[in-house]
Amino acid sequence: MNEKEIQTEIESRVQKKLSDLFTTYKTDTDSLQAILKWKPVVLMIGNYSSGKSTFINELLGQDLQRTGQAPTDDSFTIITSDGSGEGLIPGSTLVSDEKLPFTYFKDFGEQFISHFRLKKVDVPFLENMAIIDSPGMLDTVTEKDRGYDYMRVLGEFAKLADLVVLMFDPHKAGTIKETYTAIRDTLPESSGEDRIVFVMSRIDECDSVSDLVRSFGTLCWNLSQMTGRKDIPRIFLTFSEAMAANPESYSEWKEERNQLKQKIQSAPEFRINHILQDIDRQVNEIKLIAEAMNAVARKGRAKLGNTAKFGFAVSLFVFFFLGVILKGMTGFPEQTFLAALLGGTVQMHHFFVPACGVAGTLLVTSLLFTKWTFPRLRQKARNSLGNLITLETDYRKNLWSKVENRVNELLKNMRISEIWFEHQTNLGKIVKFLNKDLQEFYERIRKIK
Ligand SMILES: Nc1nc2c(ncn2[C@@H]2O[C@H](COP(=O)(O)OP(=O)(O)OP(=O)(O)O)[C@@H](O)[C@H]2O)c(=O)[nH]1
Ligand SMILES: [Mg+2]
C-alpha cells in the first residue's frame, strides 16, 4: 500500500467516524481540507537578512528572489512550477482561487494580499512541491507597522507547510523566539519538532571557530528554552559559498548545505505524516470540547439527582399531609386521605387531593430545574470556563485557548437533554479514534517508510 492510498483511507475513515462530531463541536476542517487540496509545501521563515532568499536562489539555480543586507523582501512569495513556463500570479487571484489552499487568507486583508504572490518557475522538482519565501521577521515593535498580523500569517502558512525551515544568522538569533512561537502554537504536539528544520546560516561570518561555537552554544540554549526540551534538535550550519569572503575556511561545512537541500527536496515524503498530525490536532481539539461539555453534563446530572430527591421528599410530604393542611385552612376535604388511611376507610376519592398535590410538586420541581437550576449551572460554567477541565500540559493549554470560545458558544445553547450521555459517548468515540485508528495509521506509515 502506498502513501496516496493510505491518505485516501485516512480521509474516508475520518469522514465516517468523525464528521458528525466535527459538526457537533463546530470545528471547521478548513485547514485540513486546504492541506489535502494542494501540493507539498516548504515554508522558509526566519529573521531578516538571514539568507533565506539567497538559499532559495541557490536551490533553484537561478536569481529569482531579491536579496540584500537590509530587510529586503516584504512579500510572501510562493515559488512553484506547473510545467508551463514562467509567470507571476498576484495575491488577489490566489486568495480567490478555490482550487488553491489560500482562500481563507483573504481574511488577513488588503495589506496582506498586496504582499502575497506566486512565481511560476521552470524547475522540474518544483512540479510536485512549492517553496514559500517569507519576509524576514523584524522586531516585535516594527512588526506592528505591517498593516496585517504577520505572526498569524506565519502561523497559517506553517499549518499548510509539510516542512518549516527556520533560518537565522548568528547575529540576530534574538528574534527566533517570536518566530518560533508563532508557528509552534499551530503545530500538533505529536509532530514534535520534526516538521521544523533549524538552520543557522551565514556561519562564514563568524570570525573564528571559537566565535562559531559560541554562537552555536547560545543558540542551543535558546532552543531548549523555547522547546522546553533538553535534547537539542539537529541544527544545520550553513553558508553560501558565493557570498562568503573566504569559503575555504569553512569548506568542511559545505556538506551541511547539501544535506539541507536534500531535506527540502524530500518534503513530499513528509506529507502523509503532516496530514495525520493535523487530524491528530483537530481530534484533540474536539476531545477537549467534548471533555468540557461532558463535565457540565455530569454536573447537570448530579444537580438533577438532587432536585429529584428534593422533589420526591416534598411529594411524599404533600401526599400525606396536603389534605390535612387544606382541611385546616378551608375545611375541604371533608375527610383527609390520612384520616381515611388511619381509619381504614380509604376510597378512590380520597386520592384526589394527594394526587393533585404530587402532580403540582413534580411540576414545580421540574420547572425549578429547567428555569433556574440548569440555566444557572450553564451560566456558572460559562463564567469559569477554565475550571471545566484540567490543563496539565502546554499543548492542552494551547488547544484550549483555541476552543474556549467554541465551548462558550456551545454552552450558551446547551439543551437539557444534553446532560444525558451524549457527550460521554462522543468522548468515548474520540478517544477510541485517537488510541486505535490514528495509532494504526501512524504504525502503517512507519512501516512503509
Ligand atoms: N557572507 C554571507 N552572506 C550571505 C550568506 N547568505 C546570504 N548572505 C547575504 O546576506 C544578505 C541577506 O540575504 P537574503 O537572502 O536577502 O536574506 P533574507 O533572509 O531573504 O532577507 P529578507 O528577505 O530581508 O528577510 C544578502 O546580502 C546576501 O548576499 C552567507 O551564507 N554568507
Ligand atoms: Mg528574502
The small molecules bound here are:
guanosine-5'-triphosphate, magnesium ion
How many strands, which pairing sense, and closed or not: the largest β-sheet?
Answer: 8 strands, mixed
The succession of helices and strands, N to C, reads HHEHEEHHEEHHEHEHEHHHHHH
Proportion of residues in helical segments:
55-70%
What percent of residues are in strands? 5-15%
Calculate the terminal CA-CA distance, rounded to whole Å: 11 Å
* Strands, total number: 8
How many domains is the backbone divided into? 2
Q: Overall 3D geometry?
A: elongated
Mean pLDDT: 89
* Adjacency order of strands in the biggest sheet: 3-4-2-5-1-6-7-8
CATH topology of the largest domain: Rossmann fold
- What is the CATH top level name of the largest domain? Alpha Beta
Unreliable residue runs:
none
Provide the gyration radius in Å.
Answer: 32 Å
| Total helical elements | 15
CATH level 4 superfamily of the largest domain:
P-loop containing nucleotide triphosphate hydrolases
Counting helices, strands and paired strands, the structural category is: alpha/beta
Overall description:
With 449 residues, this protein is α/β, with parallel strands linked by helices. The chain folds into two domains: 39-265, Rossmann fold, CATH 3.40.50; 284-448, no CATH class. Helices cover 55% and strands 8% of the residues. It has 15 helices and eight strands. The protein has helices at 3-24, 30-37, 52-60, 91-96, 110-113, 140-143, 150-160, 176-184, 209-227, 254-265, 271-330, 337-343, 352-383, 394-412, 422-448, and strands at residues 41-46, 76-80, 87-90, 116-120, 130-133, 163-168, 196-200, 235-237. It has an eight-stranded mixed β-sheet with strand order 3-4-2-5-1-6-7-8, with helices on both faces. α9 (209-227) links the parallel β7 (196-200) and β8. α1 (3-24) runs antiparallel to α15 and α13 packs across α14. The protein starts with a helix and ends with a helix. The model has no long low-confidence stretch (mean pLDDT 89). It binds guanosine-5'-triphosphate (GTP) and magnesium ion. Residues 48-54, 67-69, 71-73, 135-136, 201-202, 204-205, 239-240, 243-244 line the site of guanosine-5'-triphosphate.
